[in-house]
């Protein structure tokens, strides 16, 4: 190596450095780097690209809309499209083209006819904006009358026969149609709590939860605990019933009880007192000609149920053969009820459904229904329910008139000439 090119150690033992080790040069390089960042030279490659291709859009699997789905699906379709537009930075002139490309069947036919009219109104040179398209789309597939209907559904929403999870989902779906009712988190939680099943509401009310998410969680836990308690009580009840004589078992005849004394409604010594009720057998002719009853079909648990309005019945009953009975959890009836038939038999009832939603003229009139072994009619509404709702049974005209607490009257008219099936009626 030539002597002129060799680095020689200095007095401190270090070697000489080149120009890149010069402090002034490093400062100048750093300054140039930061100036380049400020001017955007290094960020240019990271800036989002405006617009997207149809291929990129289709990779997001956008949903189609055929126009036959319900109004909530129409709004969900719009929301899904807008979410894809935002992620892909789609330009406004692309949004309408890409969205309408995914309209099918009835919706596609609607757009073809509507687009021509809209373009004629705007002019051929003016593109249809997304906001304009969204307005006419929702006006057609989700009109204001339906939105108002959804708002009323939210106002009247209660848990009913739904689970807490189903109730929460329905609550969220309907809530944005009446957002003015829940302007903040606290009001939202209060509205949800008011609609909970009474037994669940009693368990969470004392916690004073004002967070919707936390309230749903606690209500779900309370529902699970309640179900476990019911299952445990049912197991105990089954064990106890195995040790009872026939007359004390649910829906069995007291005349078969070996310990029954003459004149006693199937009670053995030492057993607790039972409430009593009467039962009659009604033929189709009896039901039609009776001065004490009105028959009809109403909604219960979102199903049609054949119902008997009977001012001679002290209690209200539901048939243990009613198919949707499994949607509601029964509770023990304390004390149990001994129901006497016209044949001199006594049937023991020991279960009741609390807060069953009877719907009349768009109004929900809840009632407690005792589970009873009967066929023909599925529900008997007696004096306990009629008096609570200020109802008057006009037997001659087969009409029931109700009066609300605010003084408003509404009525239900039974269709004459209908022949109900043979039925066991609790009166």
Automatic annotation (TrEMBL):
PROSITE patterns with a match to the protein in the record: ASP_PROTEASE (PS00141)
Disordered, as annotated region: 1-22
Organism: Juglans regia (English walnut)
GO MF annotations in UniProt: aspartic-type endopeptidase activity
Domain Retrotransposon gag: 97-197
Pfam family, one: RVP_2
GO terms for biological process, alphabetical: proteolysis
Name of the protein in its database record: Uncharacterized protein LOC108990059
């Amino acid at each position: 190596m030539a002597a002129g090119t060799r680095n020689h150690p200095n007095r401190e033992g270090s070697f000489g450095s080149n120009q890149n080790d010069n402090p002034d040069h490093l400062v100048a390089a750093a300054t140039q780097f930061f100036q380049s960042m400020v001017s955007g030279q290094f960020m240019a490659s990271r800036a989002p690209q405006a617009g997207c291709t149809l291929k990129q859009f289709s990779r997001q699997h956008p949903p189609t809309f055929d126009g036959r789905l319900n109004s909530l699906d129409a709004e969900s379709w719009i929301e899904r499209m807008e979410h894809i537009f935002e992620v892909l930075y789609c330009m406004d002139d692309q949004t309408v083209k890409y969205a309408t490309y995914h309209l099918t069947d009835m919706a596609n036919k609607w757009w073809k006819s509507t687009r021509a009219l809209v373009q004629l109104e705007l002019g051929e040179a003016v593109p249809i904006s997304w906001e304009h398209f969204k307005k006419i789309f929702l006006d057609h597939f989700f009109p204001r009358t339906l939105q108002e209907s959804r708002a009323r559904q939210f106002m009247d929403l209660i848990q009913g026969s739904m689970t807490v999870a189903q109730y929460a989902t329905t609550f969220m779906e309907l809530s944005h149609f009446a957002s003015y009712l829940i302007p903040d988190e606290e009001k939202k939680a209060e509205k949800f709590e008011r609609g909970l099943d009474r037994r669940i509401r009693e368990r969470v009310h004392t916690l004073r939860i004002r967070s919707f998410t936390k309230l749903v969680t606690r209500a779900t836990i309370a529902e699970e605990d309640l179900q476990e308690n019911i299952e445990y009580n049912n197991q105990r009840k089954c064990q106890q019933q195995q040790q009872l004589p026939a007359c004390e078992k649910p829906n069995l005849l007291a005349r078969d009880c070996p310990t029954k004394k003459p004149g006693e409604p199937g009670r053995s010594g030492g057993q607790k007192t039972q409430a009593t009720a009467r039962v009659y057998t009604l033929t189709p002719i009896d039901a039609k000609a009776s001065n004490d009853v009105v028959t009809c079909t109403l909604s219960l648990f979102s199903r049609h149920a054949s119902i008997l309005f009977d001012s001679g019945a002290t209690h209200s009953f539901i048939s243990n053969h009613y198919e949707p009975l499994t949607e509601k959890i029964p509770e023990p009836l304390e004390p149990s009820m001994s129901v006497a038939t016209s044949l001199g038999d006594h049937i023991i009832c020991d279960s009741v459904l609390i807060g069953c939603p009877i719907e009349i003229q768009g109004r929900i009139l809840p009632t407690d229904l005792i589970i009873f072994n009967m066929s023909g009619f599925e529900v008997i509404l007696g004096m306990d329910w009629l008096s609570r709702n200020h109802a008057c049974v006009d037997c001659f005209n087969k009409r029931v008139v109700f009066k609300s607490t605010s003084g408003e009257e509404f009525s239900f008219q039974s269709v004459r000439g209908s022949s109900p099936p043979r039925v066991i009626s609790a009166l």
